[in-house]
Write a structure and sequence with these properties.
This is Cytidylate kinase. Helix content is about 55%, strand content about 10%. With about 210 residues, it is α/β, with parallel strands linked by helices. Strands 2-3-1-4-5 form a five-stranded parallel sheet, with helices on both faces. Bound molecules: cytidine-5'-monophosphate. Cytidine-5'-monophosphate binds next to helix 2, helix 5 and helix 9.
């Protein structure tokens, strides 16, 4: 059985948590596509000795390996910013398309979360969800997540980082963050994780 659930939305809307829960509920495989861009950004920064070169980033994207995705420094602010910068490079995005599409059509069902899954990677996905929440709610969650992971930083700094990244992600020419017309909107501002998951599960069950 091939069945794709595409989940998009801005930083901190709860995509990752929801995607994991939905994948576990239905026994689908899960791909966090943001991790691909984080790994490319981080590795390209290392190889470029602190600067992000487009040609180098494209090469890194074409030759990404499993250990690159398992680095322990992919969740911090440096990797977030580098991810959103390399994500605006057309050659980098192109190099990552085939892997994501193959993953989406694997047997047994797949959940992919990112920014362009329903719009560019899997326009034919059986279910498209778009998660959103107020900037304050998203900043608060991201801040709590980072604090739990031992990373310091003020709530204000996290809010600014998210705002900057969202505006870059939404304004880039190639595959900007946007809600596909046929995506179901779930606003998670006032929802618990369990409530958001239940909404998603209802939508998916109707499509199965
Ligand atoms: O989802 P996450 O915050 O890990 O994504 C990091 C960055 O990767 C995003 O800010 C965005 O620039 C980029 N990204 C993207 N397309 C995706 C997933 C992530 O452009 N499908």
């Amino acid at each position: 059985m091939q069945f794709t659930v595409a989940i998009d939305g801005p930083a901190g809307a709860g995509k990752g948590t929801l995607a994991k829960a939905v994948a576990a509920r239905f026994g689908f495989a899960h791909l966090d596509t943001g991790l691909l861009y984080r790994a490319v950004g981080r590795k390209a920064l290392d190889q470029g000795r602190g600067t992000l070169d487009e040609g180098l980033a494209e090469l890194v994207a074409r030759e990404l390996t499993p250990p690159d995705l398992a680095r322990d420094d992919l969740r911090g602010a440096l990797a977030s910013r580098a991810a959103s910068k390399v994500a605006a490079m057309a050659g980098v995005r192109k190099a990552l398309v085939a892997f994501q599409r193959d993953f989406a059509r694997r047997e047994g069902g797949a959940v992919l979360d990112g920014r362009d899954i329903g719009s560019v990677i899997c326009p034919q996905a059986e279910v498209k969800l778009y998660l959103d929440a107020s900037l304050d709610a998203r900043a608060r969650r991201r801040h709590e997540e980072m604090a739990a992971g031992g990373a310091a930083g003020s709530l204000d700094a996290v809010r600014r980082e998210i705002e900057e990244r969202d505006s870059r992600d939404a304004s880039r020419a190639d595959a900007p963050l946007t809600k596909p017309v046929d995506a179901h909107l779930i606003d998670t501002t006032d929802l618990t994780i369990e409530q958001a998951v239940e909404r998603a599960v209802d939508i998916i069950e109707q499509a199965l």
